[in-house]
């Protein structure tokens, strides 16, 4: 940098030399800008390649971008509100230097040092992912033991070794006293509520997991990679997921070109409304992949269709199978809700199945824990129910016929 003296010596510099210096400085500045821009582009390209390399193939609600010294994990949609902004997490090695990201789109990003030592998962689906990764021992606390189907974890909770935080309202003071490295919620909006803000402001990061918003079985299962990245277990997650995906796709292949496909209804009325899966939904995909016909497959949407009993009744009369009929675990429990269920073809032939085979002593259902992360097991059950000849040696894992 040129320092000018208080004297007027600079007047001796000729105009031509001054112009030469200005040109040189301008060129140097321009060269610096160009080089800087090239570096940024290179970073962006490398991030894109990193995301492709990590092979997030089925999930649509999160991405992982790899840079040299950090990763950017983005939850693209954390709530059903598609207009809500994405959430971003910048992960960097604890032993390394915390990066400084100046991009406006990452102004509100949460910085997290990895690997995290422990975690508080606020959904049973998170526990299923941790179990598949061999990381259950990293759990510091849970909501309620009643929700937990993992035998060893359940025993530790009942023995007082792992605390319960409450549900649906957790005890923030109790959570703060544990000082976990990470809290994982199942809703982006939750992380903005005051109780979670207090936790986050104390230095404990709260991360939103939106696995439940995925509309395909493999999409939901792929969130195991989201869980793993905070523990630097990316390679393990890739191997586990590849095994799950290969198994699922092989099972699905068994049900192609079937001569007959039975009609399948699911769920049951809730307060006079029967929420049936829309044509592009998670459950509709399961039914079709298992060789069944979903009566509402041509109805657009990825959620549920709110129908009256009278709209579902004529379809129920002809449907061959009925799966997941709410909280009913027996045929008598169904008719106690509505005697008209006895008119259904599936009821008369006892082809009604619910996902309650693996419950803990308090009713915690493993279908909502490992079932999310092992859609191949769920699919195997459904294929055995609809087409037992395709898997003659299979034993049901999650489903039981109602008696």
Q: Which regions contain 5 or more consecutive residues with pLDDT less than 50?
A: 1-52
Second rung of CATH, namely the architecture of the largest domain: 3-Layer(aba) Sandwich
Helix-strand string: HEEEEEHHHEHEHHHEEEHEHEHHEHHE
Q: Which CATH first-tier class of the largest domain would you pick?
A: Alpha Beta
The proportion of strand residues reads 5-15%
Report the strand count: 14
Q: Average pLDDT across residues?
A: 87
Strand order of the largest sheet: 1-2-3-4
CATH homologous superfamily classification of the largest domain: Nitrogenase molybdenum iron protein domain
Shape: globular
The CATH topology of the largest domain comes to Rossmann fold
Radius of gyration: 28 Å
* Residues in helices, as a percent range: 25-40%
**Count of separate DSSP helical elements:** 14
Number of domains: 2
Structural class: alpha/beta
Distance between the termini: 87 Å
* Major β-sheet annotation: 4 strands, mixed
């Amino acid at each position: 940098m040129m320092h000018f003296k208080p004297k007027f010596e600079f007047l001796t510099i000729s105009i031509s030399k001054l112009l030469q210096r200005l040109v040189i400085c301008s060129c140097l500045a321009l060269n610096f800008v160009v080089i800087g821009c090239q570096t940024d582009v290179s970073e962006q390209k490398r991030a894109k390649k990193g995301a492709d390399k990590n092979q997030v193939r089925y999930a649509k609600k999160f991405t992982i971008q790899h840079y040299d010294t950090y990763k950017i994990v983005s939850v693209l949609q954390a709530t059903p509100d598609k207009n809500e902004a994405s959430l971003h997490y910048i992960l960097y090695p604890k032993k390394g230097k915390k990066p400084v990201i100046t991009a406006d789109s990452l102004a509100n990003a949460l910085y997290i040092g990895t690997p995290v030592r422990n975690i508080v998962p606020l959904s049973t689906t998170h526990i299923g992912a941790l179990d598949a990764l061999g990381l259950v021992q990293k759990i510091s606390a849970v909501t309620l033991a009643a929700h937990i189907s993992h035998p060893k974890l359940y025993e530790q909770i009942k023995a007082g070794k792992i605390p319960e935080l409450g549900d649906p309202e957790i005890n923030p003071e109790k959570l703060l006293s544990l000082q976990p490295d990470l809290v994982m919620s199942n809703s982006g909006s939750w992380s903005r509520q005051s109780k979670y803000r207090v936790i986050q402001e104390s230095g404990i990061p709260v991360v939103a997991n939106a696995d439940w918003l995925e509309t395909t079985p493999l999409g939901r299962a792929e969130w195991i990679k989201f869980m793993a990245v905070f523990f630097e277990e990316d390679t393990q997650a890739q191997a586990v997921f590849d095994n799950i995906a290969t198994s699922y796709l092989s099972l699905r292949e068994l049900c192609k070109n079937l001569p007959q496909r039975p009609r399948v209804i699911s769920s049951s009325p809730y307060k006079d409304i029967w929420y049936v899966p829309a044509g592009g939904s998670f459950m509709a995909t399961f039914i079709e992949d298992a060789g069944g016909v979903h009566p509402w497959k041509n109805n657009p949407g990825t959620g549920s269709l709110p129908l009256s009993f009278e709209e579902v009744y004529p379809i129920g009369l002809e449907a061959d199978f009925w799966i997941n009929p709410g909280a009913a675990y027996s045929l008598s429990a169904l008719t106690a809700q509505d005697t008209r269920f006895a008119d259904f073809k599936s009821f008369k032939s006892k082809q009604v199945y619910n996902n309650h085979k693996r419950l803990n002593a308090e009713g915690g259902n493993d279908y909502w824990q490992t079932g999310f992360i092992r859609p191949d097991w769920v699919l195997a059950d459904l294929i055995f129910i609809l087409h037992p000849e395709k898997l003659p040696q299979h034993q049901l894992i999650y489903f039981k016929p109602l008696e």
